[in-house]
Write a structure and sequence with these properties.
The protein contains 17 helices and ten strands. It is an alpha+beta fold.
Length: 435
């Protein structure tokens, strides 16, 4: 097990509107079904244990591109979406945010009775992962969300998150049972979050001697403990510093900037949609105003399904597939979202019946994007954002008036959303909190 990095996750509060949360559940379900079809359920666990992929998944589903709410909202959407097909897929999700996290052991025991899983071992894994990240990794973040994903084979992934209310930041932790030999010796698949000064991480492999010394001190009694403390105070012994881990720095600014996106990759996606669209999605392109944009969204979905890990170093790029909940880089377009869902659902259903032509066509979009990105050119970042704002009306709660940035100025220079329109303190039609 190796850490894959860390990332800053600004701590956001708020709620996800019903029109988005329901679609996220449906999109999450069909994407997981496609992953299982292509690569098997173990690959689903591996990907959920990859922090960059998890962030990209949240973006392509229309969630805020950098928010701490990605963790809780994406896991909640997957749990709701996969519940009706958990027996078919052999994947089961337990836990969640707050009170739901404390129900994880009971949910795992229920799974054990229903599907013959070794519940006692899974409950122990759940409790140990939560304990390690709250006690053995003393980084200033208090765990408030714990998600446990387990397969019929008993393999599992844990995605959990802690918050630091003083710094207004969150840190996400990833675990994967594959290859796990110890819960206290470098067990994490990854940790997301901004380094917070000196972090006491007793799970690091370099801390093995520190763990052993703690056991020795407890065994030898208080005299040995007091003697060691006295030496430390007198400067006769100094703890060795822990090396910093690489991390993905998620900006605290709400808007997506050109620095958050590798533009050549986005141009490759657009070029692949233009190249393959007339060949593989001709009927879809006949839908005015929706077809071409849906093929672009499908190309982004295809990369999340089939892309290699290095492709997710700029997760904000995937927010250009559907838009974002908080209108960054632009509002979610329901017609494009629904059309994307319809094509994916049809492709997966056909593949289950032995016809994988449509699913293969979606996979080809990813291959073409990687081939074309080296030579593809396209609009500027500002032009792509402006086109997203100009492409259609956004879905709104009943008591929120329509608004959009001025078409005469690039979105980056337009006023914040709170200045462009009046957003009431309590918008109608909202459900789950996102932090």
């Amino acid at each position: 097990m190796n850490r894959t990095g860390s990332a800053i996750l600004p701590l956001h509060s708020g709620k996800v509107p019903p029109w988005l949360s329901s679609r996220m559940a449906r999109l999450g379900r069909v994407m997981v079904e496609a992953l299982v079809y292509h690569y098997g359920r173990q690959e689903v666990l591996r990907r959920l244990a990859h922090p960059f992929w998890f962030q990209a998944l949240g973006c392509v589903m229309g969630m805020d591109w950098h928010s701490s709410g990605v963790t809780t909202t994406v896991f909640g959407a997957l749990k709701r979406g996969l519940a009706p097909v958990e027996r078919e897929l052999g994947l089961h999700l337990c836990g969640g945010k707050g009170a739901e996290s404390r129900r994880t052991p009971a949910e795992l025991e229920a799974l054990g009775h229903r599907f013959g899983l070794e519940a006692e071992r899974l409950v122990r894994a759940s409790r140990l992962t939560a304990k390690v990240d709250s006690a053995a990794v003393q980084d200033g973040f208090e765990i408030y969300m714990h998600g446990f994903i387990v397969s019929d084979e008993g393999a599992w992934t844990v995605v959990q998150q802690g918050m630091n209310v003083e710094t207004r930041e969150a840190r996400r932790y990833h675990w994967l049972s594959e290859g796990l030999t110890s819960f206290v010796d470098t067990p994490h698949a990854a940790i997301d979050g901004l380094p917070q000064g000196v972090i006491v991480n007793l799970t690091d492999a370099r801390a093995r001697r520190a763990r052993e010394a703690q056991v020795e001190l407890v065994t030898e009694g208080p005299d040995q403990v007091l003697g060691t403390l006295r030496k430390l105070r007198e400067g006769e012994a100094e703890p060795s510093p822990q090396l910093a881990l690489p991390h993905l720095r998620m900006s605290k600014q709400h808007g997506v900037s050109r620095d958050d996106v590798i533009l050549r990759r986005l141009h490759g996606t657009l070029a692949a949609a233009a190249e393959r669209g007339p060949k593989d999605f001709a009927e879809l392109l006949l839908t005015p105003g929706v077809g071409a944009k849906t093929v672009v969204a499908l190309a982004s979905v295809a990369e999340v399904l089939h892309g290699a890990p290095y492709r997710f170093s700029d997760p904000a790029r995937f927010s250009f597939a559907q838009g974002g909940k908080d209108r960054h880089p632009y509002p979610v377009r329901l017609d494009v979202y629904d059309s994307t869902l319809q094509v994916l659902r049809s492709a997966v259903d056909a593949a289950k019946l032995g016809n994988d032509e449509k699913l293969s066509a979606i996979r080809e979009l990813d291959r073409q994007a990687r081939l074309l990105e080296a030579t593809a050119t396209g609009p500027s970042f500002e032009a792509l954002v402006a086109a997203g704002w100009d492409s259609g009306e956004e879905p709104l709660p009943a008591n929120l008036s329509p608004c959009a940035p001025s078409t005469s100025a690039p979105p980056s220079s337009s006023p914040p959303a709170t200045e462009r329109c009046a957003i009431p303190a309590s918008s109608a039609g909202r459900t789950s909190r996102t932090s």
